Amino acid sequence: MRKSNQTPSSLAVALAFPCLLAVAACDKVEDYFADEPAEDEAVALYQTASVQQRDIIVAVEAAGIIEPVTTVEVKSKASGEILALPVDTGDHVEAGTMLARVDRRVLNNSLQMAKANLEVAKARLTNAESSLERVTQLYEQESLSKADFEQATLEHATAGSEVVRGEIQVENATIQLDDSDVISPITGTVIERLVEQGQVISSPMGDVGGGTLLMKMADLSHVQVRMLVDEIDIGKVQSGVGATVNVAAYPNRPFEGEVTKVEPQAVAQQNVTMFPVLIDIENRDGLLRPGMNAEVEVLIAERRGVRTIPNAALRTRGDIFEAASVLGLDRDETERLLAAAPPPGGTDSANPRRGDGARRAEGPPPTADREQMRAIFAKMRSGESLTDEEQKLVAQMRSRMGSGGGRGEGRGAGGARRSLVDGQFGGEYLVFALRGGEPVPMRIRTGITDLDYTEVVAGLVEDAEVLILPSASLVRAQESFQRRMSGRMGIPGLSRQSSGSGRRG
Predict the structure, then answer these.
(1) Alpha-carbon torsion (245, 248, 250, 251), positive or negative
(2) I need a surface site. Which of 162, 255, 324, 351 has the fewest CB within 10 A?
(3) What whole-number distance in Å separates Cα of residue 420 and Cα of residue 155?
(4) CB of 179 within 8 A of CB of 78?
């Protein structure tokens, strides 16, 4: 057996070296799961974003089909063979133009027969009247029974009804003969032709099936789009709201339309509740044709050149404290800052640089001393009581800020279109903004949003810095993860030091 040259001391060091490596590895794993990251590995808790001017457009998008507003089915009151059919699909015809001609020979024969039958009926009526007069005289002389008198009266009434029937037959035959030339009832376009020359058609006046449909005509000077809108968005769509229609045939030419009707009855498509909405479009050039697929964008609200912030910066009263905990602010301090934060002001419709819908940010009236207002705000933030004069000045400022023009309809000062449903948008939210390099909560009033950016109506000036913090759900998930890791989950035998002891080096 080979003899080892290692001394006892070197052997002890060799045996202890793996143990030192194991301890060092455990220290690194524990440091990895520690609450506080190392200083050289610190990550940013938030991002900042500036209040910037943007255009915000809110719209509801849906697909639909182009269809005529007015469609007429053309039939002939005359029955017979079609001798002429001068129009075809796509032809634009004026009202009164001949669309088809039916063979008149049979119709003329029917008219002559009806006239002959009428003459016979009139002759029978004359005979019945003479017979009734003789029977009446005999009956008055009691030379004739009552039954014979009643029979003569019935024959006279029957002869009279045959005359009326004959007159109706003559009139109908005359109508059919006159209608052998089918005339266009409207000025429009032939969109469908269902018969051909030489075909025998039937009249709806004598056919229980409704007669033969010759063609369909439509007035294409105005068309409409029938689109289906999800029930989630249908509350935003109202009659009179503008819409933009795009079709594949003209990809670079949008068509302007207007919502004319929102159907009250919903329809279900693939278990989704939808409501039909009709969009009227003026089709002067005749470019839009029935059956075209259309993509419709219904304008709900529009703002041009307004102050905006990212939606991720908005906070509600329910998650403001969890967001503040990310910044190291406790609940009491956050409550104090919120109490000191001034309410958002009113509107600023007189500022043309900010465009339609821009709102007035908070600030003192022009006649007020700015230094005095800054001192008042400092006292409010610190919780000190205001004097009567200071309270009056604050009340005047709030009154001035709240006296701005409200939201209107039609077109704003900047010329941008304003929706009829603008009142459905906006509200009061909270944001964290940087003031003197320190994050403070502020109250703001918002307008419309496109789900990426939100209009700031009041509460923030341009170029102000707001903080984008993790959402409340993310903060709660992180806290839950830290609690699970503090229970030594996942690494058996690894002991976590108490919060009061230092980290192993």
Answers:
(1) positive
(2) 351
(3) 73
(4) yes
How far from 326 is each of 88, 276, 334, 393, 477, CA to CA, in Å? 74, 47, 12, 36, 13
Tell me which residues of the chain have a pLDDT lower than 70: 1-46, 206, 345-371, 373-374, 377-378, 380-383, 394-425, 470-505
HSE-up (13 A, CA, CB side) for residue 148:
13
Please name the residues in contact with 80: beta carbons below 8 A apart, sequence gap of 6 or more: 102, 103, 104, 106, 107, 180, 200, 201
Other residues' Cβ atoms within 10 Å of the Cβ of residue 147: 8
- Amino acid letter at 91? D
Please give the C-alpha separations between residue 120 and each of 156, 162, 315, 376, in angstroms, as whole numbers.
Answer: 14, 9, 95, 111
Tens-digit pLDDT profile for residues 78-110: 888 899 999 999 899 999 999 999 888 888 888
- Helix (H) or strand (E) segment spanning residue 214: strand 213-230
Tell me which residue has tokens 């001949």: 98
Both tokens of 238, joined, read 């109202």
Q: Point out which residues pair with 58 in neighbouring strands.
A: 301
How deeply is 215 buried, as exposed, middle or buried, from its count of CB atoms within 10 A (0-12, 13-18, 19+)? buried
- Those residues whose C-beta lies under 8 Å from the C-beta of residue 17, and which sit 6 or more positions away, are none
Q: Is 243 helix (H, G, I), strand (E, B) or coil?
A: strand
H or E element at residue 120: helix 105-140
- Give dist(CA 459, CA 466) in Å, integer: 12
- Partnered with residue 82 across adjacent β-strands are 102
Sign, Cα dihedral of 151, 153, 159, 161: negative
Tokens of 182: 């089918």
Token reading at 92: 């634009």
Tokens of 453: 């950016």
Model pTM score: 0.52
The DSSP secondary-structure symbol of 360 reads P
Q: In this structure, what token pair is assigned to residue 234?
A: 């249908």
Q: pLDDT > 90: what percent of the chain? A: 22
Burial of 430 per CB tally in 10 Å (0-12, 13-18, 19+): buried
CA gap 416, 408 in Å, rounded: 12
Q: Which two tokens stand for residue 331?
A: 């609940």
- Backbone torsions φ then ψ of 170, nearest 5 degrees: -65, -45
Residue-range domains of the chain with CATH: 47-55+303-479 (no CATH), 60-66+218-302 (2.40.30.170), 77-101+181-211 (2.40.50.100), 104-179 (1.10.287.470)
Residue 433: HSE in the Cβ half-sphere, 13 Å Cα cutoff: 21
